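[Meeting: bench + compute handoff]

Bench side (C.D.) handed over the final construct sequence. Compute side (W.E.) agreed to return the predicted structure before the next meeting so the bench team could plan truncations. Sequence as handed over:
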Amino acid sequence: MRGNRPSPVRGVTVTIDGVTHYGTYFVQSSNVYVQSPFGAKATQVGASPPESIATSELVRQRPKS
């Protein structure tokens, strides 16, 4: 059993209007932790895969033009 041990840190990218935004995420205790140059956020894992959650959070964190 893994317990509360975090998963490996993984990279996530999203390109919007020709600009690529980068961040990282890991999963621990049913939460996805996302960090980028724009901030950090933890979100509970639900029905979506962790990578999808991380991508969505990265989109929300990016600066709006």
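W.E. noted at the follow-up: The chain has a mean pLDDT of 89. C.D. will use this when planning the next construct.
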